[in-house]
Structure formats: structure tokens, C-alpha cells
Model the fold of this input.
Amino acid sequence: MTVATAVFRITPDVNAEIARWLSYLGAERRMSAKTLDAYRRDVSQFLNFLTDHLGSAPSLKQLAKLTPADIRAFMAARRSEGSGNRSLMGTLAGCRSFARFLERNGKGKVGALAAVRAPKLPRTLPKPLAVSAAKQIADTDLREGEERE
Done:
């Protein structure tokens, strides 16, 4: 499926804006085809969820009327499908990018996306070096000919 392929289960006005947005990202922002495909997939998942959630394909006007509860319901549905925090963050980033594009082009503001916090990633400690790697770093014979202070 290419980036230009229409997203299913959405209204023609939203589909036209998605095509314009992806074209903008590809031409002016010079994003790669894989990035565009990921953004298209993220927004498609969101809009397909909204179709089920709202009972019909969302229009631009309906997108502007979304509440934070709608966004949280989407995140909960994605989490129940097994999506982790990193995946949810990426999906929200794609949807927020589309919402900013709509707002910049006078097609409405989807404020609910900005009102919901993205999930946080757990902080991890640095991994220790293996014993052999630590010995290599400390081995003065390996670095003998280097000039250093």
C-alpha cells in the first residue's frame, strides 16, 4: 500500500486533508516514504477507531469536537491490543502532526489531542560493560602510540 492510497472508513473531506498532509510532509519536510507510511497508518488506526467509537466516519467538524475522553478511549483500545508506551507515543505523534496541519490550514483545531499526555517511557540504567570490554578499555598496550594529555 502506498502513501497516496486512500485511508478506508473516513469521509472524503478528511481523506483529502490526509492526502494533502502526506504530500506536504514528503515534499516540503522531506520525510522518507517509510515515515510517511507510518504516519498514514497511525492516523488511519485513529480514524478507524473513531468510526467505531462515534458510530460513523468522522468529518473535520467531528474531529474538532473530540474530547480528551475520546483520545483516552483510543489509547486504551490500542493498549488492549498489546501496544506499549513507545508505540502509543508514536501513534499520538502522528495524529498530533495531522491535527497541527489541519489547524495551520484553517480546517479546525483538534484540541483534545493536545490535552492528553503521552505515556511515559520507563527510565533505564546504563548497562554495564562485559568484563572483556572493560579490560580492553583499561589495557594501556592497546593505546600505547596515541598522543594524549
About this structure: Confidence is low (pLDDT under 50) at residues 1-7.
